[in-house]
Write a structure and sequence with these properties.
By secondary structure, the protein is an alpha+beta fold. It has one domain (5-105): 2-Layer Sandwich (HIT family, subunit A). It is 20% helix and 22% strand. The protein has two helices and five strands; from the N terminus they run αβββαββ. It is globular, with a radius of gyration of 14 Å. Residues 5-114 form the HIT domain. This is Histidine triad nucleotide-binding protein. It comes from Billgrantia tianxiuensis. A motif (Histidine triad motif) lies at residues 98-102.
Length: 114
């Protein structure tokens, strides 16, 4: 999608602090972190919302939590715990319409989120 911020990051048209990349997934530090570690994990292919995931996307979308767990382990907070979040549409808090997983760690989280 030509106007998608995350597509532009994946295509290196917009700079980001990239912390992980493979053929299907890109992960980068959030520019407005809500925790000591706050990483966004995105598929390189454009899927606007969780509602737009198709059967053929299952393996790709399943790769996001796999990458989140590996990054949490690398950064040393997997055993203590961490939060992963995916928002969907406006009322769900989605602001960039390209699915993405937030990986947050390095502090204790409360519920509701805060």
């Amino acid at each position: 999608m030509q106007d998608c911020l995350f597509c532009k990051i994946a295509q290196r048209e917009i700079p980001a602090d990239i912390v992980y990349e493979d053929d299907q997934v890109l992960a980068f530090n959030d520019i407005n972190p809500q925790a000591p570690t706050h990483i966004l994990i995105i598929p390189k292919s454009h899927i606007a919302t969780l509602n737009d995931i198709e059967e053929r996307d299952q393996a790709l979308v399943g790769r996001l939590p796999y990458v989140a767990a590996r990054l949490a382990e690398e950064r040393g907070f997997a055993a203590d715990g961490y939060r992963v979040v995916m928002n969907c549409n406006d009322q769900g808090g989605q602001t960039v319409y390209h699915i993405h997983m937030h990986l947050m760690g390095g502090r204790r989280f409360t519920w509701p989120a805060g």
